Amino acid sequence: MITEGKYRHTYTATASDITPLYRLTPNALLMYFQDSFARLMTIHGVAAFDIIKQRRMWVITEVQIDVQPTVTYWSEDFTVEIWVSELTSLRIYCDFRIVRKDRSALPLASSKNEQLIASGTSQWNILNLDTKRLETTDFLADKLTVVPRLMTGSHKKVRFPKAQSIDMQMEHRATRLDLDFNFHVSNRSYVSIALLTMPDEVLSSQTLSSVTVHWLHETYLDDTLTCRMSHIDDGSYLHTLTNSEGVVVCELMSRWQSQTETADVSEVLNRDL
Q1: Do residues 140 and 88 lie in contact, with contact meaning Cβ atoms separated by under 8 Å?
Q2: In angstroms, what is the C-alpha Rg of the chain?
C-alpha cells in the first residue's frame, strides 16, 4: 500500500528472525527492509527483474540502521514503511521505519499508536552490466515519488575511524549459503560474518543499538574473507572484511547498549496469538 509516496507492508516474525533477547536480528532487519524496497520498485516497474531487460542492476552500497530496544515475539506482525527520500544523478536514497503495534494502545486506537523497532536510510545505485559503470538515475525521475523526510541527520557518508589495534580476527570461506541470486556473496551475509566477531560477553548482556554498513566490492563462492574486529574508544566496534588479496570488501560499524530487562519465556508462551 502506498500513501503519500510511502509504501507499507506487514510481515510476520518467524522464529529465526528473533534473538534470545526477543529483538529482530540484524539479518531480519535487512531482509525485510530490502524486501519492501523490492516491492516498492515492483509497483513502479523498476524492480530487479524489470531493469535486467535493459542490462541494468540495482546495487546497495550503504545502510544506516538505528535499532530500538523493542521486543518482537514469534508470530507477531510488524510493518516496514519505506520511501524514496532523495534522488541525485547517480544515487537513490531510501529511508525506512520498522514498527509494531503498541501493546499499550486501546484495541480501536489508530495506526499512529506504533512502537518503533528500527529506522534508517540506505543508498542505492544502478549498475550497467555491460560496462560495469554506474548509470544515471534519469530514467527513474518520472517513476519514483520523492518524499524528503530523512530518518537520519543527513545522507552524508558516514566516515569510520581508523582501527588502532585488532581485538578479534577470523576467516570465512564463502559457501552456497552465502550467495544471492546473482551468485555474489549477499550483503546480508557480510553483516552476519562481521558480527560473528562480537565477544560472547557483549552478546549475552547487550543488544544492538545501531549498525552502519559500507559494501565496497563483490566476492564469490569459495572466496576467503578475513574479518577483523576492533573496539573503538567511543565504545563502538569496527568490523573490516577483506578478500584474499587484502582488498576491503565491506566495512561495518556496530554499537551496542545494555539489556536492562529480558522478557520471561512465560510471557512469550502465554501471549495472545
Answers
A1: no
A2: 19
